[in-house]
Structure prediction request, 321 residues.
Amino acid sequence: MVQIVGMTESIGLKDIREGRGKVTLWSEYDGKTVLNLAANEYLEVPSRLNILPLKRGYFPGDSPSRKFLKYGLHARIHDLDSREEAAKHYEQGIGFQDRIEAIVNAAAGPQRGICWTSFRDRRHRIARFVDMVEAVELLACIDKGKLPAPRIDKLELELQNVVDMPSRSDDDKYNFVLRPMPVKESENPAADAFDLRADCHCEDSQFHSEANRRYKGGEDLMCAHIAAAFGLAAESRTSNTVVQNPFAVPREKMIRLKEKVAKQTIIVKRDRQGKDFRESPTKAEVEALLWIAMKEVSYREMFYRDDTALKMLEAAECIKV
Prediction:
């Protein structure tokens, strides 16, 4: 269990169901309102609102959260024509962090993550806000000795890092290779950031990979383990350092926002008999609510502009485990 330093533990779902706590109406919902919720306050999302929009032609069924993660709208970084174009933009001072900020600011409504296309394999990569926060939480657990330190092996010639990442939920370890690392001595670090991938076998990555192989083909989830490993790999490189970072790195305020959305939001749902019941938000619903909240706050209030990925480790300092 993680907790933000200086943040009071909120009331639980049982207390809310029993009528304890103050309700904040959906009409008042934005990032600032959620951040200012007291420990005994919560946000209630009524059943009439669909916070998990899908692309045209797909409709929520028995599991709208799972379908949203596969078919939901995403904030897509515009494709470049070539690796050479990426290098030219980089020379002009336009990097991956600029693209992330621009696409988040332009997004309309809830998204299932930030998406871009690799030059090398033409597969899509998708990175979710909730996974970026969980990556920082994972780093906090490692830093404070709650999880074993991962093995990070550097292969300078191939510009790769072999990583052995621990799991927070079980004793398993996820072994994968981060490649290509967008480092200073690469011929084209800007394009390498688009091409970065790793094959993590965690449950989220496997579900996403299998689901998209069947229905869409060509999409890889950049999960919390991959993002955390990227931050650790960047720290391990005393030479040939990382100069482009494809991940949004959350500040303490974004970590607090995710915690409040996950723990102080109740989703009202309706069963087949037309009766309302209340549930804590799923991971998909937390992601959607974070995107809605971002419309009312500044991107730079919530995320670092971090080309080196080293701010991931700094952000972990605000979490106690």
In short: The chain has a mean pLDDT of 85.
